[in-house]
User: Fold this.
Amino acid sequence: MSSSSATTSAVPAVPRPYRPPGPVVIEIENVTKLYKMGEEIVHALRGVGLTVRRNEYLAVMGPSGSGKSTMMNMLGCLDTPTTGKYHFTGKDVSSMTDDELADIRNREIGFVFQTFNLLPRSTTLANVELPLIYAGLSPHARRERAIKALHDVGLGERMSHKPNELSGGQRQRVAIARALVNNPSIILADEPTGNLDSKTGEEIMQLLEELYEQGNTIIVVTHEEDIARHARRIVRLRDGLIESDVRQE
Amino acid sequence: MQRLWNEFIESFRIAITQIRANKMRSILTALGVIIGIVAVTLMGTAIKGIDTGFNNSLAMLGDDVLYVQKWPWGGVEDWWNYANRPPIRPEAADKLNAIIEQTPNSLLEVAVPVGGSGAPIKSGDNKVNGVQIFGTTADYGRLITADFSEGRLFNETEAAGGRPVCVLGYDVADALFQGQSPLDRSVVIAGHPFTVIGVIAKQGSFLGLFSFDNQAIVPLEAFRRYAGVRRGVEVRVKIKDKTRLIDAKEELIGAMRRVRGQLPGERDNFSVNETEAFKAQLDPIKQGIAMAGLFITGLSLFVGAIGIMNITFVSVKERTKEIGTRKALGARRRSILLQFLIEAVSICMIGGVVGLLLTYGLVFGVGKAFPAMPVEFSVGLVFISMGVSVATGIASGFVPAWGASRLDPVVALRYE
Assistant:
């Protein structure tokens, strides 16, 4: 793992567009998370605090076992903290039921997974429409918005293809279109380039950069410095605690 | 509401995609349901057929005839109250007829004494054992619905004189004379010679228990000579209007009490039986057979349901990651539950439709091959079997679908 100074030196000399962050989206206070692994109790998070504002571009980094995955699950409202507070756009997530969490994920969070997680037997369009089905939109509205999202990621011509007819980069674009389609408050990408070659990975990061510039809030969870470099702020985790939280404009 | 509807449609779409993607597996699973549905619907058809056959048999007995007998039909617990009843004398029929004639607007038409016993019938070297012999009067012709294939019934003169003439049932005539005309031929009934004057056309059997064609009818006076009527006969009374059966029965009971000279307040010392009551007696038995049959065939459907449950478990396991993804994208528990439930129900419904078509084919084939078999295919059966299919799908898909809906999205997403 390279030090933070190495990361800073890797930031390009050309000034990147920086958008002033808006109101608070995520507010985490002193969150802990315990797991029982057989007899052993694992402290995945030992008291973490984090505030993320609208239109931030944040990278969460850390070696394996640092609590990075737990952090991502927490941020994505897939999991709730053992203790501590988590407010998402002012709503207390820590005490929500499974179905309330599902609704938050549906409306507020766009997931991008390392393994794309597309439905193999559905077309590109159907894959992108999926979150809108759970949002309760009419078929007509779903189609319209899914087509627009696919155009936004440059896949307007591939709508009736199945995932296995697409390249890795195209699949991840479909996944990003799916993440965008319901206008979420944040886009949460978990190792978005982990299954792609470096050139394609770079293209995907370019797409995320564009989305950020269009006003989206992006959180990337990664262990790769090259990927984290694209973010405007890097949060490093180690042993369940935040080790550093650095802005890089 | 829109959301639930969307999820419903989406679930059906997924189900169809999944079934098409796993054709072999789906076919094999559906096969279990097909066998179950075929078994259950065939049983249903058979039960309905039995019912129809039963009603046809009752019609053969005549649904406009009342039976005056010593014993009531169906069992009695206090048999000692019945055992001491006087036997019904053939003369009671004459007295009843006299009363009927005197009664203006009587609901009764005619009373006919019928004595019965079993006896062998011989003709030359041919012999038929256990033929039901009826001794009766010429009025018997007004009771029966059957036609004569040859000859006639004895007339009043022959009956009154106790002439040794007889009418044979179709099977008896066939067994004794093998296709030759039995008319004017001689037979020996219980050691007494009789001349055949008629043959009754084939009627079939009553519930397959005893054949109407295995009988012989002789004049009551002749019957008396060799069998005797000391133990009594029965009096069959034809009524004029079967829609007023209850009233007719009331009238008959009154008339019979007069014949017997019973005092008011005294209990009837005879029974008036009717096929309707017989039906009521047999209904519980019929229902018992139906329940047992449906239970046994239901077992095969149960095995089919286990197959569905198994395949749904496999499906959930295989698609754990997909479940995780769907949950991450905002699927509620209900959505996942619905998805797998509809998948199970869809396979069951396919099985149900195929099973129903097979049953229809079988019933149609059996109906063509054996016209006598009382099988019936009804619209009700379609609804029932589709209902059963859907219920099977829900029952067997519920546990795995419930498990899927409760999966932790974090665990499900990590599943490989």
Notes: The CA atoms of residues 149 and 181 of chain A lie 6 Å apart. The radius of gyration of chain A is 18 Å.
